[in-house]
Specification:
Layout: H1 2-24, E1 27-31, H2 38-47, E2 51-56, E3 70-73, H3 82-86, E4 91-94, H4 107-125, E5 129-133, H5 146-150, H6 154-167, E6 172-177, E7 179-181, E8 190-194, E9 202-204, H7 205-216, E10 224-230
Parallel strand pairs: 1-2, 1-4, 2-3, 4-5, 5-6, 6-10, 7-9
Antiparallel strand pairs: 8-10
Helix pairs in contact: 2-7, 4-6
Length: 251
């Protein structure tokens, strides 16, 4: 009888331990948390049960990122600040991008050296997957390309940041969206293609967030670089089945 009376308590303790273990495996650091893609990304992650740590440069300017979101102050241009930010995180998602034409927040400082710093910190912390938001055209070295001409060779620097992540040894997914627009996610069909495809177009930031979140625990997305656009002609939700045919990146 004593065993029977103790059984419910034992089951409760076991359930609590399993729940804690499950939650611990779903910790995500979002770099660029206050940006136009970071905000809907956090909402999507929380809706799926992830524990979110939002990385911001200035807590005082972060605002309300949602109940239960842990806010940590760090800057990809200051690698020493990243140690605490990535500690204990299973996943890392980066939506950062240059915000200035001058150092340290220019394309070289953020899209290249910032990604170097963040991916190195993620590796040291033992992160299991790193998802990077880049851009269609990343790696373009042509100074005459409009984005390069207007934003300090940004596509070239993004390509260099991607290359470092690929070589880091951290499992990754690189998502190269087309032109980013502000609109509600989940309302438009999407098309995912190989990075070297001829895809071009626009895509909702909130939809980019959904695709990056899907990549976290999707084995078919591992170690791949993909292009992403909105496409009204594509079947709804068909993008979820298009990860698999895309080849993994050469090592």
């Amino acid at each position: 009888m004593r065993i029977l009376r103790r059984l419910p308590l034992a089951l409760l303790v076991l359930s609590t331990l399993l729940s804690s273990a499950c939650t611990a495996t779903q910790t995500v650091l979002v770099a660029g948390a206050t940006g136009k893609t970071g905000v809907p990304l956090i909402k999507s992650l929380q809706a799926e049960g992830y524990q979110v740590r939002a990385m911001v440069r200035d807590k005082a300017k972060a605002g309300d990122l949602g109940a239960g979101v842990e806010v940590v102050e760090a800057d990809v241009t200051r690698p020493e600040s990243l140690v605490a930010a990535v500690r204990g995180m299973r996943y890392v998602i980066s939506t950062i991008g240059a915000s200035s034409a001058t150092p340290p927040n220019n394309p070289e400082g953020v899209d290249y050296r910032g990604i170097v710093n963040l991916s190195d910190a993620a590796k040291k912390a033992g992160a299991k997957h790193f998802v990077l938001m880049s851009s269609i055209g990343a790696g373009d070295e042509n100074p005459a390309t409009p984005l390069n001409r207007m934003f300090g060779m940004v596509l070239s620097w993004k390509g260099k940041g991607e290359a470092h992540l690929r070589a880091s040894g951290v499992p990754y997914t690189i998502v190269r969206p087309g032109g980013l627009v502000d609109c509600a996610g989940g309302n438009e069909a999407l098309r995912i293609g190989a990075a070297d495809s001829s895809l071009s177009g626009r895509v909702c930031r909130a939809d980019v967030a959904l695709v990056m979140m899907d990549a976290l625990r999707n084995p078919d997305a591992r170690n791949k670089t993909v292009a992403l656009i909105g496409d009204s002609k594509a079947p709804a939700n068909d993008w979820k089945s298009t990860w698999k045919p895309i080849a993994t990146d050469p090592r």
